[in-house]
Design a protein that fits this description.
Elements (H helix, E strand, L loop, with lengths): L11 H4 E3 L8 E3 L1 H14 L5 E6 L7 E5 L3 H7 L14 H13 L3 E10 L5 E2 H7 L12 E8 L2 E11 L4 E9 L1
Parallel strand pairs: 2-9, 5-7
Antiparallel strand pairs: 1-6, 3-4, 3-5, 7-8, 8-9
Length: 178
Amino acid sequence: MADGSSPRSEAWLERAAARADPDLPPRVLPRALLADVLGHARECHPEECCGLLVGTEDSRSWRAVRCANVQSARRARGDSDLDASQAFWIDEQQLLELLGECDARGESLRAVYHSHVDTAAYLSHTDLDSATTTDGQPLWPGVAHLVVSAWGDGVREAVWFDWDPGEQRFRGRPAQGG
């Protein structure tokens, strides 16, 4: 199916806090950058991948920084009920180091990316809780979220989510390489 869902189940719709809006034009990303993210998602399956897109304002300068998904370790410690097949968590120390390196290089965080396993590309309520503050505003203003639908047989879709300040919500659009 075009939305990356299983024909047997539409249960992902209940988990979706935001999904692709068919009326929005695609977000075109550099082909090699998107290929790197999609490859990361395939390599990590059956667990979620996660990482950052960093660079200058010009998206042609962006690069993907792969991060380790430590969600299963969080579950083992009792910090979460979800494991790495159901959610992602970037180690806080690794994140701080990466952001410091980006700053030193004159780069900024442009997007956080992760994959969903054997389901559609959408922002789940868990994803939304991690991406927003307690008052519902973006945790990192100006930073997008890229979600990839990864299945055992490959990647089915990628959706780019930007914060819409007028609507006070993330809006999704298909991501494609160009």
